[in-house]
Amino acid sequence: MKPLHRVPQPSSSRRWRASAVLLSLSIIVAGCGEASTNPSQAVGIDSPIANLAFIHPDGSEGQLADHYGQPLVVNFFAGWCPPCKAELPDINAVHLAAGDDVKVLGISHDLSEDDWQELVSETNIDFETVFQPDREIFIELRLFGMPSTILINPEGEVVHTHSGILNAETLRSMISEYLDVEVSA
User: What CATH number did the domain enclosing 98 receive?
Assistant: First the structure.
């Protein structure tokens, strides 16, 4: 009897690398398009998402619930994401124009705290940024593509989500429509 011919299987390392490449490409492709959606669920102050921890630049922990009580724009970004880097100056311009009327918070999904700090320094953004490498909030909200931005009303409810790059005009319009706050140009 003739032995069966076995097709060589790729090593687990190769399979892992191939999976990582496919995941990276899907994130980049999703991030290049623009899509706005209305959230499927409101996330209030008692929600598990409200209490998921992230790291402040001084090493202390914080959570979204710390920012409730005011209109909040949360932008998810990373240095490995070219569209994220491209939109940061526009988000910063809206932050500066909004003053105390709207809180802007950036959540970094960089691979390391050094990468996060380097991007913040490189882009000269003034709004508060934090570090959450495990992407718990992003995943829990079922967001797709980078960058993504969510708008949270003062009661702690997600009132709008946007996946894809934003410019200042679009962000101002979203803030006006969903948070009922006018931000000058």
Answer: 3.40.30.10
Q: Strands, DSSP E only, in 8-115?
A: 35-37, 54-55, 61-62, 72-77, 103-108
Q: Is the pLDDT score of 65 beyond 50?
A: yes
Which two three-digit tokens encode residue 83?
A: 């569209």
- Interstrand relation of 103-108 and 128-131 (parallel, antiparallel or unpaired): parallel
Distance CA 163, CA 150 (A): 9
**129, containing H or E segment:** strand 128-131
How far apart CA 70 and CA 110 sit, in angstroms, is 27
pTM, entire model: 0.77
Residues forming a β-bridge with 108: 77, 131
> Would residue 5 count as lying in a domain?
no
CA 111 to each of CA 11, 117, 183: distance values in angstroms, whole numbers, following the listed order: 25, 11, 33
**In this structure, is residue 75 part of a structural domain?**
yes
